[in-house]
Design goal:
The protein is an all-alpha fold and about 575 residues long.
């Protein structure tokens, strides 16, 4: 297939069976379902984070909570993060494509059982060694009281490792059946649990370490809700679940073999977050909270733009690869890449230009201070630089997994982590003493005028360097994955994808200039007005410029939305 074939057509999918295969339009509809769910989840996440910020502000209590939660997330990744999509779905989908439902459920039963046992063992081990983990690995620069608080919170939240392990496999089973709604809503239920923790449990436990243990109990509730919301959909599938630890069950060893590289890759990525926690433990109080909340905001946008498309396209790519339909695989992947770039580039500019009002509107309540807003906006503006890279990585990594190649993303991820650590150590020196007044734009002028960058101390704004390091490393990782996938497939319809990226980037920059001017002119107004006017004007300007530059997605996306609304 040449670069002249349109990527947004619904050409017939080749192969002998089309079960669990969607066309480009079908994928975009599925992505729309997932995207709406991600938006709802993101809104809940923003409300949850706002409630948490109002209860505590960016201080030591939240630093301890986020550090403790890092252990649970890492263990979940090691237990089932690899099986969630890259390893389990291709094997499970193959059984379904052969109409071997019984075999598929035997694989599912064995994998869920193994995840449950492995999660329990790791969680108990981490609980036993919580104190040295907190003091020597997570927060080596913090005071002993902060380290002890982190260890206590860690022990409460470790039960989520087991719950999320089982629930994650439930999501994979539903996605393999092209049932996206319940699985996409599950993360929102976790946000509901944390929101209840912030609004109900924190006040009830206020006399005990300021109520931060209420958030830990909310995390437990959220994990339980994450699983419970999927149960009705799983039961409707009619599968037969039989607990089993038999490694000889057909397909199980294949899942474990495929899972190994993916777990290694995800585990390596977790090193970035542990490095961030360790480095911020020696910075001003609240640095880890600012960094974590900024990444949470970015991740909300990423969920809407990148994860929704990646989640929807992965089962189809896996099925196409199983049938050897390379041309269709290439066409659908290129279409997904175009879609995420069209949405991610203006979002990047918008997050940078409007970082301060975004943070002020969401978090500026209760104990949250103006300095907390400035710090979090500082980190957000740097993270936003890598948004397109993050979004492409979501799609390209899944494409490799669909090809049953789990090693290539791992190797690229390891190199990316090394690069991220090196850049982190460098950029906290470069950016260390700089504090922003209006987003990341100032860093370049400050850097140029500073004389000797190496003399800037690791000070108030140093954590911005950690965000920028992560963004730059991710961009380079995505570029490497793109080039390697292009080599694998012969081409990726590069001319169309790059043309779309260039025209979208020009439109986004034009939008950014106008929105920046508007924001500066409206600086005396409340942040909510600045954000609302800036966002509406930015969306209209980007759409207009994209249409003028003949970006096909500028017409097709609104048409798709209108069709969905009319229905």
């Amino acid at each position: 297939m040449t670069d002249q074939v349109p990527v947004d057509t619904d050409a017939a999918i080749t192969g002998t069976s089309t079960r669990n295969i969607l066309s480009v339009t079908g994928i975009m509809r599925a992505a729309g379902i997932v995207m709406v769910s991600f938006v709802l989840t993101g809104v809940l996440g923003i409300v949850r984070q706002a409630a948490i910020g109002a209860q505590f502000g960016a201080g030591g209590a939240l630093d301890a909570f986020f550090a403790a939660n890092r252990v649970s997330e890492t263990l979940f990744t090691l237990v089932s993060g690899g099986a969630l999509g890259s390893a389990f779905i291709p094997v499970f989908s193959r059984y379904l494509s052969r109409d071997d439902t019984a075999g598929a459920w035997r694989v599912a039963s064995a994998v869920v059982s193994l995840v449950f046992v492995a999660g329990t063992i790791l969680a108990l081990g981490a609980a036993i060694f919580a104190d040295p983990i907190a003091s020597h690995l997570l927060l080596p620069g913090a005071d002993p009281a902060q380290q002890a608080l982190t260890a206590g919170l860690m022990r409460v939240m470790l039960a989520t490792v087991v719950i999320f392990g089982v629930s994650g496999l439930g999501m994979a089973i539903l996605n393999a059946h092209q049932r996206f709604l319940a699985a996409a809503l599950a993360p929102g239920m976790y946000n509901v649990g944390l929101l209840i923790g912030a609004l109900v449990f924190v006040p009830l436990t206020r006399s005990y370490y300021g109520g931060v243990f209420g958030l830990a109990f909310g995390a437990l509730l959220g994990a339980a809700l994450h699983l419970v919301i999927q149960l009705p959909s799983l039961l409707r599938l009619g599968g037969s679940f039989q607990p089993s630890l038999d490694l000889t069950t057909p397909g199980v060893r294949e899942v474990l073999v495929l899972m190994g590289p993916r777990v290694l890759g995800l585990g390596v990525v977790q090193i970035n977050f542990w490095v961030n926690a360790a480095l911020t433990s020696g910075m001003r109080e609240g640095s880890l909270t600012a960094l974590t909340l900024a990444f949470s905001l970015l991740f909300t946008v990423l969920g809407v733009l990148g994860q929704s498309v990646g989640t929807a396209v992965f089962p189809t790519l896996a099925a196409l690869n199983a049938q050897g339909a390379t041309d269709d695989f290439r066409r659908i992947l290129a279409g997904a890449m175009r879609g995420v770039l069209f949405m991610a580039l203006p979002a990047t500019v918008g997050l940078i230009v409007l970082s301060s009002p975004i943070v002020a509107v969401i978090y500026g309540h209760g104990k949250w201070t103006a300095n907390d807003t400035t710090a979090t906006a500082w980190a957000l503006s740097f993270y936003a630089v890598g948004l397109a890279g993050f979004a492409l990585q979501e799609v390209l990594a899944r494409a490799f997994y669909a090809l049953r190649d789990t090693w290539t993303p791992v190797v690229i991820g390891v190199v990316g982590v090394i690069l991220n650590i090196v850049l982190s150590l460098l950029l906290i020196r470069v950016i260390g003493g700089v504090q922003p007044t209006f987003g990341a734009i100032h860093v370049f002028s400050v850097a140029i005028s500073s004389g000797s960058l190496w003399t800037i101390p690791v000070g108030q704004g140093a954590f911005g360097g950690l965000a920028l390091a992560n963004a730059l490393a991710t961009i380079l990782e995505s570029a490497a994955l793109w080039l390697l996938m292009r080599r694998r497939l012969g081409n990726l319809m590069d001319r169309q994808v790059l043309s779309l990226a260039a025209r979208s980037a020009v439109s986004a920059i034009g939008m950014g200039v106008v929105v920046f001017g508007l924001a500066r002119a409206l600086d005396s107004l409340p942040p909510l007005f600045i954000l609302a006017i800036g966002a509406l004007a930015g969306a209209a300007i980007y759409e207009l410029l994209a249409i003028l530059l003949r970006v096909e997605e500028a017409r097709s996306v609104p048409r798709t939305i209108l069709r969905r609304v009319r229905r």
